[in-house]
Every structure is written in structure tokens, then in C-alpha cells.
Design a protein that fits this description.
Length: 80
């Protein structure tokens, strides 16, 4: 009876310990886009992308609009 209460849990099956490829692909894509924005537009581009992502994720139009405007200004800067 005592061994039932103090028994260590069984380790998860091998299938549950591996990272699915479908979960790894979006993570690689996000990191790649972030690096491209950083390379092309610098820290302001990453800030704009971060504001846009946070605003869309939290359903706050003011934050997402600020990020979108910042990205639009960075993209159209040579045309001004």
C-alpha cells in the first residue's frame, strides 16, 4: 500500500517526448522573418513587428495600428 502512494510516475512514451515537425516549422519561419526584418529595417522594424503581433494577439487595435504604421513608415522611407 505504501508503494502505491510513493511510486514515481512512469516516463511519457517516446512519441510524446519528441517535438513534432509541424510545430518546429512555424517556429523556424517566425525566427527567419524576424531576422530578415532586423537585417533590413533594424531595431525599429523588430519593434514594429512586435507591436503588430502583440496587438493582433491581444485584440488591441491601437497597438496593432502603431506597429503597422511603424512598419509602413520604414518600408516607404526611401519613397519620401
Amino acid at each position: 500500500m505504501a508503494s502505491f502512494w510513493f511510486r514515481s510516475p512512469d516516463p511519457p512514451p517516446k512519441e510524446e517526448r519528441t517535438v513534432p515537425v509541424l510545430a518546429l516549422v512555424p517556429a523556424v519561419l517566425v525566427v527567419t522573418v524576424e531576422q530578415l526584418v532586423q537585417w533590413q529595417y533594424g531595431a525599429a522594424g523588430v519593434l514594429g513587428l512586435l507591436l503588430l503581433a502583440i496587438g493582433v494577439g491581444s485584440n488591441r487595435p491601437g497597438i496593432s495600428s502603431a506597429g503597422a504604421v511603424l512598419l509602413a513608415l520604414l518600408v516607404t522611407r526611401p519613397a519620401l
